[in-house]
Amino acid sequence: MEPSLNGNSSGSRRDGDSFVSTQFVAESLIPTASGKYRVRAYRHSYDGGRTCSEPTCIITGRPEGGEGVPVRVHDACFTSEVLGSLKCDCADQFRLAQRYIQEHPPGILIYLQQEGRGIGLANKIAAYALQEEGLDTVDANRALGLPDDCREYTSVRNILADLGVRSIRLMTNNPRKIAVLEELGLVVVERLPCLVQAQEHSLGYLTTKQNRMSHIMGAAVADEPAELDGSFCFWDHDGEPLQPSPMT
Questions:
Q1: How far apart are CA 101 and CA 98, in angstroms?
Q2: How is the chain split into domains, by residue range?
Q3: Is 151 a catalytic residue?
Q4: For 41-66, what is each residue's pLDDT tens digit?
């Protein structure tokens, strides 16, 4: 799968009526307050071409062809990353991942346009409104008729294949994400915790992620995890719902 500046596909697969395509567009070196990054832009379509997004790959060093490459798969969060919201740990996790790949190159931060665990920004704000009435993040989604999580990760598989990365060390607290990526064929050799200490406004959200969504929060929150539940709606490479068993 060769990258191309003219948008030729750098990763595509057709299974029956389903089609997934991830196209490399361009790469640029961008200086930031935390250092310089290679930024690779892609266009991704799935769900038979009905759904499109523009994932971005933020890189330090030369991970091409590498094994055990540190990777953070990060979903956009307008409320924390732009507005500075204190309700979640997303912006802090992004900065933590940035710092890690700067200090341990080569490394990759894949940034996906999947606001609110894939439900979109407008639905996320609607869920926030219900949380103000006392629902947690899981029950707020369900009250809106939405899944707990509907993120799609075939672009991650295709981007890492485009770079020739053979195995990864995944920065995540979410064992379900590891299971989904492995189902897509990625080799995850290690989980790197991405913990942010809970604060006044984020404690309820982080506790819910641990108790109801299987996240491994360690000392970030005090409560012990309860038995897992959830209408998780990750997607496999055929565009079908995928519900992996929790990892131990």
A1: 6
A2: 9-120+153-202
A3: yes
A4: 999 998 777 789 999 999 999 999 99
